Amino acid sequence: MSLSLNQKTINRATLPEAVEACARAGIEAIGVWREPLADAGLERGAKLVRDAGLRVSSLCRGGFLTGDDREAALADNRRAIDEAAALGTDTLVLVVGGLPPGSRDLAGARERVADGIAVLAPYAGAAGVRLALEPMHPIYCADRGVLSTLDQALDLAARFPAEQVGVVVDTFHVWWDPRLDAAIARAAGRIASYQVCDWITPLPPDALLARGLPGDGHIDFRTLGAAVSAAGYRGDVEVEIFNADVWAAPIDDVVADVVRRYQEHVTP
Question: Is 162:156 a contact under the CB 8 Å cutoff?
Answer without folding.
Answer: no
